[in-house]
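Sample 3 of the quickstart, ligand PMT:
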Amino acid sequence: MLKDKKIIVFVAGGIAVYKTVALVRELIKQGAQVKVAMTENATKFVAPLTFQVLSQNKVFLDTFEEEDSEHVSHIHLADWADYAIISPATANVLAKIANGIADDFVTTTLLAIHCPVFIIPAMNSNMYMNPASKNNRMKISQFGYTLMEPDIGFLAEGYEGKGRYPELFRIMGEFEQFILKHEINLPLKGKKVIVTAGGTKERIDPVRYISNDSSGKMGHALAKVLRDKGAEVLLITTSSLNVAAGIKKVTVSSAHEMFKEVDKYFATADSLIMAAAVSDYSPKYEQNKKIKKDNQLVQLELVKTVDILKTMGSKKKKQLLVGFAAETNDLKENAQKKLIEKNCDLIIANDVSQKDRGFNVDTNEVTLFTLKREPLQLSLNKKEVIAEKIVDKIISMIQEKEDEESDTNRKNNS
Ligand code: PMT
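Result:
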């Protein structure tokens, strides 16, 4: 999501400057282009060289240090940025922004900035709660800037309070949400997509169940890419893997629970992607007490679970329906059969007989089957990369479907 985004990080003088180093590193790791501007006070906590090495860009410090006679550097930098972050935002820098004061490189550039601004306040709790600071934050949010809430916890002063610099994962989660809000041209903006993930558990008794090796990695990777492309994602999962910020997660266990959740949201969704490994059979009766091991032979009666994909295939109207096929043999025949039998638009087949793909590994190799086109093979790669390519295909199919619909409407109206 951050790939090639141009981000200025404004660093003000507080103890949390050292934590901003990790933030800049993370932004670079995620593919952003980062330029850093520091106040003079910030340079007392961490040397500019640290940020220069990490960002691979010169650090801006002095308004009057104009290296390029063709540009006024603070205006040029303000025009360059797609997004700005102020980290840490001290009480002093917030007061200046609130009142339009521009007396150093950071505040002068901030006055000239016209991209969305994301602010990470960090200061002593008494300073944070001071009415003047509160008033400044209120004014700043009225300017349209986004302010994070600092953490509550142990402060540098040696006592607890509100004002701590937030943990990096929280910052990244909220920053990604902030970017998604401002990116208006994302291809899946306004689309609702349901993704299922993980292996279902069919209870035999309170301590035993039937399941499979699905980890949820493939489904969770798909959910994240869909979110990055602007979709409103509902992830119905059995997995406890982390879920990227902004994705609505519903945890389920059995095939029946998964069915109920998918069914609840399917009518209003634009697409359903069934990456979950749903058990085909479930014990006919779930014992409410642990089965004793007195008998030599225990017979388990199994009944077929509801085929979620097939059921949604019979209900689908405008939805793009995507299924997976986990195969050990006759991949092409089986996948094409599932495509038709389950009324899918796309089947993603993986050969799960091989160790480096399919269940519970980080990589996958898949072939995409549709009714209209030749199969498309995506060669072995990380599940995150495979997910990106699958989502590209889904985007082009949604687009195609919409074009067909508007053609039909035009013909009907003429
Ligand atoms: O979770 P990972 O460890 O990352 O592994 C990924 C994966 C191997 C689980 C994934 O890539 C995959 O192949 N998921 C589908 C597994 C599966 O159940 O395949 P199937 O061929 O048995 O089922 C075909 C399709 O019908 C699937 O989309 C399945 O979700 C769906 N189905 C199956 C049974 C059922 N009762 N209801 C269903 O909706």
